[in-house]
Design goal:
heterotrimer; A mainly alpha; B alpha/beta; C alpha/beta; B: alpha/beta; six-stranded mixed beta sheet; 10 helices; C: alpha/beta; eight-stranded mixed beta sheet; 12 helices; 12 strands; globular
């Protein structure tokens, strides 16, 4: 019973509205984004190298101390390689980075890569747990706030989010420690060798980040619930929960996903203050102590690593985004 | 009748986007026509036919990719930019959406004044002109300090017509001037436009998707399809003896109010 | 069968509240739709057409503060039903399509999935059976490659095709009433034609009634069985197609019909209606049309003319139905 138009018209067989609506195959998208990631990865070591050279002062002098004997300083210079021409240094740096060789720590004499990789699992699990916690707070509360706008629920959510945003996470961390490790010793006070150690810091991190995401979820949900396709979904007789979670939330999560991805990237750089509060041997603390001790190879390697992980996470979020949002996959 | 506007082989190509491969879009393809003084040149076309692009290209609001536009004996392609300001007042354009054509933050007096200041009118001359012109389009002068949102859509379109008229133009391009208005308001605006045309000896290029409307008011009709002018001619001829199948298709639209075709006559043909 | 009524709206009024002001959008309308009938509800912007249609489905926005009257659908008053029962009716017995299908389709769900939802929810089909049914529906509404269409996202269709997807969605559970809110406005002539023919075809083949909301009298003249004309929240005239176009009674209807330009009217002046469509916030007292009406007298300013039967099937709300209008110069 398909209707056929007059011969002048594009009949029902024409599907797409011109070249514009064509869907890009996923592997091409992957290829494109991978090229972009590769270029970023090339750029990062260069930037790290030059930034560290541009900063005024002689690293060797800083590390050895200003009153150190000249031969000690000279010795350090050759160890750091800062006495050679910059281009040669750059070449060597890039080559060593390519071989994942970041040098050894000036303090502990251990390879920088090993130091980083020792600390990274903890940071990663903290970031994952923190993000999970943040989403678990933000999504249900945000949806509820949006659905029951201008009611007590909504105001409650807003107050919570305001507090969560304004309270520094270290303070939250300390309060949580005092409550659940000291007064009611449910969780260990410090250290990072079991999952239990991660509960309190992830909650502290989650409340802080979740508070921001909550507002985002609320705003996006209010916007989506006001859109016309919601009326369509309701006119089909779908239950309200399906309308909210299957139709509205799916679209509302798009902007949230972008911000959450960036937040997650930051978390992977180590939550320096929280690691300090909970005495967790994470990446943040490693870099922080390297800064205090002027441990140049560790600073350099750590910066590089964090930047690389950040770009990698962004790459993954980008891919995920284009999977969730079909509209982005058109050329 | 002498030709007022002549369009010769006008083509507009948009480059298109994309890194690896670009698909240039040919919005207008080799369009030629002449509009004589006092004509109402009706251009009919559906969405994507290039009617708005054509309107913009005629007035050089967008430079055509190739082709020439003559205004009288003047070739608009050769006009240096510093002469355009003067020339612009001679040719006005009115768009479909009356809401976006008036600055919502200014009382309509200010919107009406701007062009007149540009022409070097004194305050008194400006007030006299505005009073006269508002009277002409049927807006009471005591509403001159109102803001656009205090007027209805039809009234806004009247104010925009007044603004175009105050520049003392020779010809006006009307790009779907009534499509956003209610049916009962449309007729009033069309009547107004036709009265003004007679009174000020104007020439119109009237663009619309509605063939009934074009058929009602045009002296000459051009049919645009996919960037090409598939048919152009005297209104009577085009209506009585359409040559292009697309024109015939538009004229035989059963959904037109004046069509007497009944569903059972076409339904059997058009469905399987 | 002949006297059976599918939908009967009685004295429906809907009031919004915005900025602490009451805005009457619909002011007491009566409307009857028979099974399988193509009923057109015609009116200009702000006449209350869309509000009427949304109140049938009870999908009015939350700033509606008053909803009175009754809407009988197969002898159930829709306004009295529980939300649960109402939800079971939506999409199954009464469904709706809209203007601008691009906005009314969820951009991030596949077309097939969106059509499938109502089938699965109302008829309890399995995933596989529902998929088959969707493909059948796509075929029925003229989407040539159903399997391919199923997995496409809304933005990958042209506007006309999107409207076909919407129609497939609306008819998926064989409703007895389809509400179509300006479904062809802003579509090109050819596409408009296809959609109208599709709707007429569905109406005939599945005995589905259509409440078609529009301001386009051309479409109405072509497709409708019965026409009701709305002005400022009231129905002012209602008649079968032939009666309405051959002997319109209300001055508004008559002026409106005379306002439409055509090639036959070349060289003559269009009729036109002075003034503007009243804003729902301040509707004139008495007959809402009186400030624009050439026949208006003192009586019209003070009393609201009731919608009364003039002849069989022809109702009109005017104190001077059919009185000659001397056209003002």
């Amino acid at each position: 019973m398909a209707s056929v138009s007059s011969p002048l018209e594009s009949g029902p067989t024409v599907f797409l509205s011109g070249q514009k609506g064509l869907r890009i195959p996923f592997f091409i998208l992957l290829l494109r984004k991978s090229i972009r990631l590769f270029l970023t990865m090339l750029l990062i070591p260069t930037v790290v190298f030059f930034v560290l050279r541009i900063i005024p002062g002689d690293p060797a002098l800083v590390v050895a101390g200003f009153d150190a004997p000249p031969e000690v300083v000279e010795n350090l210079r050759s160890k750091l390689g800062t006495n050679r021409p910059p281009l040669e240094q750059y070449e060597e740096w890039i080559l060593s980075v390519a071989q994942l060789e970041f040098g050894t720590s000036l303090i502990s004499n251990e390879p920088v890569l090993k130091l980083i990789l020792d600390r990274f699992p903890l940071t990663l699990s903290l970031a994952v747990a923190g993000m999970l916690c943040a989403l678990l707070i933000a999504i249900p509360l945000g949806v509820m706030s949006a659905v029951r706008r201008w009611t007590l629920w909504d105001y409650g959510g807003m107050v919570f989010s305001q507090i969560g945003i304004s309270l520094p996470s270290f303070w939250l961390g300390i309060i949580l420690l005092l409550l659940f490790a000291v007064k009611y010793p449910l969780f260990p006070l410090f250290g990072g060798d079991s999952p239990w150690h991660l509960v309190l810091p992830s909650v502290a991190l989650g409340i802080n980040r979740g508070a921001v995401l909550l507002r985002l979820v609320r705003t996006a949900m209010i916007e989506e619930l006001g859109k016309e396709y919601i009326i369509t979904a309701r006119s089909k007789g779908l239950p309200e929960l399906v309308v909210r979670y299957r139709h509205a939330l799916r679209n509302a999560l798009l902007p949230v996903l972008t911000i959450a991805g960036i937040q997650f990237g930051y978390m992977l750089g180590g939550a320096i203050i929280l690691e300090q509060v909970f005495s967790l041997p994470g990446l943040g603390r490693l870099i922080l102590s390297a800064v205090f001790q002027r441990d140049f190879p560790v600073i350099q390697g750590g910066t590089l690593f964090v930047a690389a992980v950040f770009s990698l996470v962004n790459f993954l979020v980008d891919l995920l985004y284009s999977l969730v949002n079909p509209r982005i996959r058109v050329g | 009748m002498k030709p007022l506007l002549r369009v010769e082989n006008l083509t507009k190509i948009y480059p298109g986007s994309g890194i690896i491969k670009r698909y240039p879009v040919k919005a207008l393809d080799n369009i030629s026509f002449t509009v004589e003084e006092g004509d109402t040149f009706g251009l009919v076309g559906e969405s994507g036919s290039g009617k708005t692009t054509l309107a913009r290209c005629i007035l050089f609001l967008e430079p055509p990719t190739s082709g020439k536009v003559y205004y009288g004996n003047l070739c608009l392609n050769d006009i240096p930019w510093y002469h355009w300001r003067k020339l612009r007042s001679r040719m006005q354009i009115i768009f479909q959406d009356p809401n976006s054509a008036l600055n919502p933050r200014l009382p309509i007096r200010r919107s009406l004044e701007e062009g007149l200041i540009n022409l070097g009118y004194s305050r008194k001359q400006r007030n006299d002109t505005i009073r006269k012109i508002l009277d002409q389009v049927g807006i009471p002068y005591n509403q001159v300090d109102w803001y656009p949102h205090e007027f209805s859509g039809g009234q806004k379109q009247r104010i925009i017509i007044a603004r175009a008229l105050s520049m003392n133009p020779k010809f006006i391009v009307l790009d779907e001037p009534v499509s956003n208005l209610d049916v009962s308001i449309q007729a009033g605006i069309i009547n107004l436009l036709m009265d003004l045309k007679k009174e000020f000896n104007l020439t119109y290029i009237f663009i619309s998707h509605d063939l009934d409307l074009i058929a009602y008011l045009s002296t000459k009709i051009g049919v645009l399809k996919g960037g090409q002018l598939v048919e152009v001619g005297k209104a009577e001829d085009v209506l009585a003896h359409p040559l292009h199948p697309y024109t015939r298709f538009l004229l035989e639209n059963p959904l037109s109010f004046h069509s007497r075709i009944q569903p059972w006559e076409t339904l059997a043909k058009e469905t399987i | 069968m002949g006297t059976e009524v599918l939908l009967e709206i009685k004295d429906l009024s809907v009031e919004f509240t915005a900025h602490q002001r009451k805005i009457p959008a619909v002011r007491g309308i009566d409307l009857t739709i028979l099974p399988g009938q193509f009923h057109a509800l015609v009116g200009e912007s702000g006449a209350g057409k869309t509000v009427t249609s949304l109140s049938i489905l009870r999908l009015l926005p939350s700033n509606v503060t008053s909803l009175r009257g009754s809407i009988k659908f197969n002898d159930h008053d829709l306004l009295q039903l529980s939300e649960e029962v109402m939800r079971n009716l939506r999409g199954r017995e009464i469904s709706m399509i809209f203007q601008e299908p691009a906005k009314y389709l969820n951009p991030s769900l596949k077309a097939g999935v969106q059509v499938m939802e109502a089938i699965r929810y109302h008829m309890g089909y399995s995933e596989k059976a529902a998929r088959e049914r969707v493909c059948e529906l796509f075929e029925k509404v003229g989407l040539s490659d159903p399997e391919l269409a199923f997995d496409r996202y809304p933005h990958e269709f042209s506007v006309g095709m999107k409207q076909r997807v919407m129609i497939a969605m609306a008819i998926s559970c064989n409703p007895s009433l389809l509400i179509a809110d300006e479904p062809t406005t802003s579509l090109d002539v050819g596409v408009q034609r296809q959609i109208i023919h599709l709707l007429l075809d569905l109406q005939r083949s599945s005995k589905m009634a259509i409440l078609y909301i529009t301001h386009d009298l051309g479409i109405v003249r072509y497709a409708a069985d019965v026409i009701s004309i709305m002005y400022a929240g009231k129905i002012i005239e209602s008649a079968p197609k032939d009666l309405l176009f051959t002997s319109p009674l209300h001055p508004y209807t008559r002026l409106l019909l005379a306002s439409i330009p055509s090639r036959e009217k070349r060289g003559t002046r269009l009729q036109g209606i002075p003034g503007t469509v009243p804003n729902p916030e301040d509707i004139p007292p008495g007959c809402a049309f009186h400030p624009r009406c050439p026949l208006a007298q003192q009586k019209c300013k003070e009393n609201v003319p009731p919608l009364v039967r003039i002849e069989a099937g022809h109702r009109c709300a005017c104190f001077f139905p059919g009185k000659e209008i001397r056209s003002n110069p």
